[in-house]
Amino acid sequence: MKKQIFLSESYIRARIIGIILVIIGVAILVNPTDLNIKISVTLILIGLFMIFMITEKSISKKTSDAQIEGNTTIIKEMIKELNLKGNAIFLPKSSTRSEERVLIPPNESGVIKIPNTIYDNVFLADNKGNNLGISIPPAGIKLLDEIEKDGKFKNAKFEDIDEKLQLFVGMNLLKSVSFKQHKNGWYLEIEKLDSSDSSNDLQNQYPCPVCSAVITAITRELNQIIRIYKTSQNGNKIVYHLNFIKRKAKQEK
């Protein structure tokens, strides 16, 4: 009963925040400058994402899949509107951040600028006002939170993380998963249950919920910053080429 109340409250909070963001976005249009229009559209998109994000478990798979597709479309439009080219960087929870986040930087290559402190804010900028991208919750964070409520996936060490990830297979969320070191990086190979659930042209920037839950699990358990270098896909098999980003002395811990 308590679990159902928690899920219901979480769902209501997400909707309230989403509605507030949409209202703010509409209000900004009162002064329709180029910058205000861009900020307004982005706030409205994030608000819609919060309103329709999946927090209930009782919905059917068909309805769930439709909502996931809608959320991905909203994120895709947000990335396009802000002209973000960089691949996803998964950030662990910290003393200034209440949950794991996905940082999508503006640039596809070059020096990756990670702000010294990232809170639970969405828009990121340096002290000169330069755009550093956006920071949003991973698509699969709610799924991972539900899995970890049962205490089945925690206290993992580097050497046994691959074994721990098999929980996703045991729960019938994936057909197979493998996390192995390769040269200077790591390969995360995921085989989904069917190919129709694998098409997502945002895999580099905003992976689908189950894939995102796996990468977030690695980020959480190892307390590491992980960047998606590139992805390759063949049917229902997806390979994520991952790099661990070392934290500088001035970066958050």
Number of distinct helices:
7
N-to-C series of helices and strands: HHHEEEEHHHEEHEE
Q: What is the global morphology? A: globular
CATH topology of the largest domain, which one? Alpha-Beta Plaits
Instruction: Write down the overall mean pLDDT.
Output: 76
From the alpha-carbon coordinates, what is the Rg to the nearest angstrom? 18 Å
CATH class of the largest domain: Alpha Beta
The strand count comes to 8
Across the major sheet, the strand order is 3-4-2-1-7-8-6-5
Main sheet attributes: strand count, strand direction, barrel closure: 8 strands, antiparallel
For the termini, the CA-CA separation is: 37 Å
CATH architecture of the largest domain: 2-Layer Sandwich
What's the domain count?
A: 2
Structural features, described:
The chain is α+β, with helices and mostly antiparallel strands and 253 residues long. It has two domains: 1-81, no CATH class; 141-245, Alpha-Beta Plaits, CATH 3.30.70. It is 39% helix and 19% strand. It has seven helices and eight strands; from the N terminus they run H-H-H-E-E-E-E-H-H-H-E-E-H-E-E. It has helices spanning 2-28, 34-52, 61-81, 141-149, 161-165, 167-170, 209-222; strands at 89-91, 101-104, 123-125, 131-136, 176-182, 185-191, 225-234, 237-245. Strands 3-4-2-1-7-8-6-5 form an eight-stranded antiparallel beta sheet. A hairpin with a 2-residue loop joins strand 7 and strand 8 (237-245). Helix 1 (2-28) packs antiparallel against helix 2 (34-52), helix 2 packs antiparallel against helix 3 and helix 4 crosses helix 7. It is globular. The termini are far apart.
